[in-house]
Amino acid sequence: MKKSFIYIAMASMLLTGGLSGCEDRLDIAKHGNMGGQSDFYKTDQEAKEALASLYTTLKGTYYNWFFMKNCLSDDVWAGGGSRGDNAGMEKLNEYTFGSDDGIVTGYYQSLYGVIYQANLIIEQVKDDSPEKKRCIAEAKFYRAWADLELVSMWGTAPIVDHLLAPNEYRPGNSKPEDMWAFIEKDLTEAINSNALPSKTNANDQETTIRVTKELAEALLGKAYVFQGKYKEGAAELEKVISSGKYALFTGEYDMMLHAVNNNNCESMIEWQSRNDTKQAGSFLSMTYIMQGWRTDHLQYSGQAAAEIAQGTYGFCSPRKSLYDAFVAHEGKDGYRLKSTMRTYEQMEEYGIKLHAGVFLPGNEGYFFWKNRMLQSDLITNFPAFQTMQYTDNRVMRYAEVLLLAAEANLQAGNKAKALEYVNQIRKRAKLNPLTDVTMETIKTEKRLELCLEGVRYQDLIRWGDGEKMLGQQGKEIPSFTTQGVEWNYKNDSYGFKERNKLLPIPLKEIDLNPNIKQNPNW
């Protein structure tokens, strides 16, 4: 069946300088109405084009979404090719960053870019056709998604619920309870609009590329859980689970996040790419080249040389503490462990060896496996700059829904239901079912199941575990060599502190907006 994908290929170049002497030639008389905001958004097609622009903006957030949240977690080291290879990631990972941090600022600003695009659709598109109603509902969903990111990490970021007039360009801080109420309102309206479709079944790969009713219910359930409204969260998440429209992926676990399995039955939020060599440049992304193993430090042979895409940079290496958590939970030969990460000895067996005399900074001799870059993920194999993949940007999958539901049910007093959902995750991981479940059990299952998927950091913050799990992060930094691990880098200041319960409002925003106040101790 021919699948349709919402995407927009946008490439633009602004030429400046050298043209000042030609201004008179560019002074061309205007004839007729050139069109403006009030002339657009009239038809179904224009509404879909506006939605496509929103999805393009969403894809533009992904690099900072991925690296900011994963570097702030206890899953990874910053990594790279040498100390200082990406100082921004190192500062995040070691908790030495300030309010001027580029990645934090970039992600914060991009979330307001999403909100702006959503507000354009919500305000400018009239709900006078099924397609327009659907576009409006999707815009409300993504405005709520962006607001959830803002309130759960920045706490007091401004609410922007409409297109701002010039005299409104400097909004003040919001109260978290008001932001959460606005999120609930947007999602409830999207769900109740009857404009969002449901998938025909769990394997419907077309409907899942856009927002479904069940996805909106899942995000609302997540918002409830994040607020501690466990009864409401359990009820909302149960709607998603009982619908049967999503399911755990049953193929090989270590292939779930690869291009061949784009839009699989577990996919919930997944921003699209396309395997089209004619438009490969439109999908150029630094996200995956940064994650891949550090090619110039490694030798590839045999199976590894045949399968792995080379020309990648080695950021976000797994920590030994993550490996140890896996081993304690499922043993060193655990199916999910070996599908998620590998030891250096296992890498050697596969055909990967470290060059003599070199070292891998921010590495303890472990390598992520579930996101390894395969040659089959590529649109074009370009080892000199391996940036053209058609692996979709995955933001949320059904396993997270089950684990949120387990938490909500346990906290609401329904241990049996919590145990049922945890055991579904364990069954897929080829582990024996549990007979009891605690909050610590759920925390561990969630860490292992969703490591390197942008979930862990926000969980640690809302659970109040930040100082416990991140307090020593950045004190010493390892390097991996053929002789073992060395700890040659140290920081005098490091680790999660009281102020890190919220991220800083970016310094640029503080400088430009006298009405916004900085978060405590920043």
Structural write-up:
The protein is mainly α and 522 residues long. The chain has helices at 23-26, 44-71, 87-94, 102-124, 130-153, 176-192, 213-227, 230-243, 287-291, 302-307, 320-330, 335-340, 344-350, 398-411, 415-428, 439-449, 456-463, 466-470, 507-512; strands at 76-79, 267-271, 298-300, 315-318, 341-343, 352-354, 360-361, 366-368, 393-397, 476-481, 484-490. It is 43% helix and 9% strand. The protein has a three-stranded antiparallel beta sheet with strand order 7-10-11, with no helix packed on it. It has a two-stranded antiparallel ribbon with strand order 1-4. α5 runs parallel beside α7. The longest helix has 28 residues, at 44-71. The relative contact order is 0.13. The model is unreliable at 1-26 (pLDDT under 50).
Structural class: mainly alpha
Q: Which runs of at least 5 residues are low in confidence (pLDDT < 50)?
A: 1-26
Q: Enumerate the strands of the largest sheet in spatial order, edge to edge or round the barrel.
A: 7-10-11
Secondary-structure element series: HHEHHHHHHEHEHEHHEHEEEEHHHHHEEH
Backbone shape: globular
**Beta-strand residue percentage:** 5-15%
Largest sheet, in brief, is: 3 strands, antiparallel
Nearest-integer average pLDDT: 93
Tally of alpha and pi helices: 19
Distance between the termini: 54 Å
Number of strands: 11
Radius of gyration: 23 Å
**Helical residues, percent:** 40-55%
